[in-house]
Amino acid sequence: MERIASPENQEVEPARAGEFAPLELGPLRVWPPVVLAPMAGVTNYPFRRLCRNFGAGLYISEMITARGYLMGNRLTRLLASSQPDEEPRSVQIYGVDPIDVYEISRELVSEGVEHIDMNFGCPVPKVTRSGGGSAVPLKPKLLARLVGAAVRGAGEVPVTIKVRKGIDDRLQTYLDAGRVAQEEGACAIGLHARTAAQLYSGEADWDAIGRLVGHVSIPVLGNGDIWEAWDALRMLRQTGCAGAIVGRGCLGRPWLFRELAEVFDGREPGPPPNFAEVCEILFDHAELVIDFFGETNGIRQLRKWCTWYTIGFRHSARARGELVRVNSLAEIRTILARGDPDEPFPPAALRAHRAKGGRTQRVVLPEGYLESRGDDTPPRGPRTPAEIDAFEKALRGG
User: Fold this and answer.
1) Claim to verify: residue 305 and residue 327 sit in the same structural domain
2) Which of 126, 165, 340, 341 stands 20 to 30 A from 222 (CA)?
3) Do 223 and 81 sit in the same domain of this protein?
């Protein structure tokens, strides 16, 4: 059977017996060593469940704000929620106040969360402008206070952190972040091998992942440019990292986790689904989303998913123009019924960018932020219900 893969992956061999070890995060043992990246507006319970049905691994919620959760914000609580079939339960938190971080960690653990990830890589301007997200690692003492607070609040539950390389090529912080994570008791660090200024443009710097592996003794998880299952094998072999974080590559392609399980178990993956099979996966996803968010909000969210699932198929551009305006599941079915059910999955779509384009940005920091890098004073985060709602909307847009 001909391998359906991009040219750089045609000759990559499946994992050899014993070549890779399970990812160990405290009491958690994850095989294959694959993690679903927390993505705003994406990794809610419906998508996590869909991915989990295709393959094993660790599936992290989209980022929730500590203050919003503690204040009972409806959307924040919904996004952090789970169902009995989700095990282990993993939640990513965002907070810039050590007290909030400690309290949310305690509360999440009391509710059965088995893994907490901390976001220190968010590049959204509204976040960095206030000194949060990817700006936090510029102040190692502040980073230490926050990580330490989460570790103490979580007790025996493993805490990991996720960072970018830094603000830009001039202000790189990932090595200091790794040292702090290790010293404060985090059990692993994930590195998105791009800077905040890069956003999602260009190629991920896998060499930086390898440098971080050589700098710390805790496991390093590599993030960036895992478009195909073979990319994860190449990343682990090249960098020595303990696991791969999968982000944009699985948008509209949840079966990627099945392929990842197959190659890590030493098997050649089967062919990707054809158009009819993709549509069935989309409909399964749609029912989960509508059940979780309700009809109106669910359909609104499904518009983007429809475009991600159909990209690359013949005549899909016209269909996507209609799919972004649908108001019911029946409309989605009618539009997709025009496609050729037997059309095979297009190889050109394997590495197609389904979200987050190639633009870059100039990262804005608070005035005087770089002159006080030894300071551990938390920046002011969103506090009032209105501020929390605005912050959550900014994250969904970033």
Assistant:
1) yes
2) 126
3) yes
